Amino acid sequence: MKKPEYFEENGCLHVCFQDTQPVKSDQAPPVDGDILLADFMESWLGMMKSQVRTNTLDSYWYMFRKHIEPYYRTHGITLNNARPSDFQNFANLKYEEGYSPTSIVKFHSIVHKCLKYAVTMQLITHNPSDNVLLPKRTKFIGKVYDLSQLNRFLKEARNSPAEPAFVLAATYGLRRSEAVGLRWSAVDFKARTITINHTAVSTRGHVIYSDQVKTKSSYRTLPLTPDMRRYLSELRRHQKDMKRVYGKNYQKSDYICTRDDGTPLRPDYISQEFTKVCRRAGLPHIRLHDLRHSAATLLLREGFSLRQIQEWLGHADISTTANIYAHVQYSDKVSMARRMGGLLEISDI
After folding, report:
1. How many angstroms separate the Cα of 15 from the Cα of each of 44, 69, 202, 227, 343?
2. How far apart are alpha carbons 259 and 249 in whole angstroms?
3. Are 221 and 194 in contact (CB under 8 A)?
4. CA dist 321 to 169, 172, 329, Å?
5. Which of 129, 139, 149, 219 is the Cys-Cys partner for 87 at CB 3.0 to 4.6 Å?
6. What 3-state DSSP class applies to 197?
């Protein structure tokens, strides 16, 4: 079987798959549907490196090693003998162990995808994990900063090396990976545009830079506001000054979010620094990703439609935008109720 091995070369993280000794057995090596589900999943995960991003594959391997493999290998479940009850029992067990519905759904999703591939390869006739009853997930509603709080946050962020990432996230609602991965080559000062086409993610203690964005819709070009154009112009001049100050010790890169010595900022550092800035500003705790929600909430309250905000944020589906921000429009319902109240003569009934 094969397991993932990671190594660094020329500043990039690579993954390869090394042979491991097969599990000893008195029987002949399993073939086709007789293969253990855990072994089949290992082979499937090896192929998935060409299908998903590296950090996503890392999360698959982690969940497989820690949760999925121990259960299905211990129970000797194969492709041929797998029954719906096996997958239901796994979900029930994880719930009893105290894992959240969201985590259990993720565990099951990986197994389901693997078995769907087995059906495609005609190793099994149907997916036995299709109809598992999973625990219901509670809808998460992120907290947001209002306009006053956002300005307070940005004022405090002026003392932080991560200020550029925070300004970009608050202004454009960029994801962390998009803000940290933004390069100067994506900024067109003449056309006054900024293009989201590159990302940076943390995985296994490394930072992986990629020309791949989360979805096709995530690749987008946004207008460079006058204030942002001025801010980025000043930031670029500052970086040129720092390059002269540090000389040979300056790390050259095309990234916008860097330290004074040119070192690109790590995504995990951005999150840690965000918490510190919020605390110094005396603001309630929210997640870094909630800066994205805060930007969208402000746009909604300014009267922009969900369709417009979907394109601004780079959501693949408008339902995603609607599900996240529908609660913000309650104030609109209040106005509608008042208007209806003024039209109908209910008091005379």
Report:
1. 15, 20, 15, 42, 66
2. 12
3. yes
4. 17, 15, 12
5. 129
6. coil
Residues 249-308 have pLDDT tens digits of 999 999 999 999 999 999 999 999 999 999 999 999 999 989 888 888 888 888 787 788
**What domains appear along the chain, each with residue ranges and CATH number?**
2-120 (1.10.150), 147-332 (1.10.443.10)
Q: Does 8 have pLDDT greater than 50?
A: no
Q: What is the pTM of this model?
A: 0.66
Q: Are 168 and 182 in contact (CB under 8 A)?
A: yes
- Rounded to 5°, the CA angle 68-70-75 comes to 100
Which residues are CB-contacts of 166 (< 8 A; sequence separation ≥ 6)? 153, 154, 157, 160, 274, 277, 291
Distance CA 336, CA 252 (A): 55
**pLDDT grade, residue 4 (50/70/90)?**
very low
Give the 3-state secondary structure of residue 277.
Answer: helix
Please count the CA atoms within 13 angstroms of the CA of 31 that sit on its side-chain side: 1
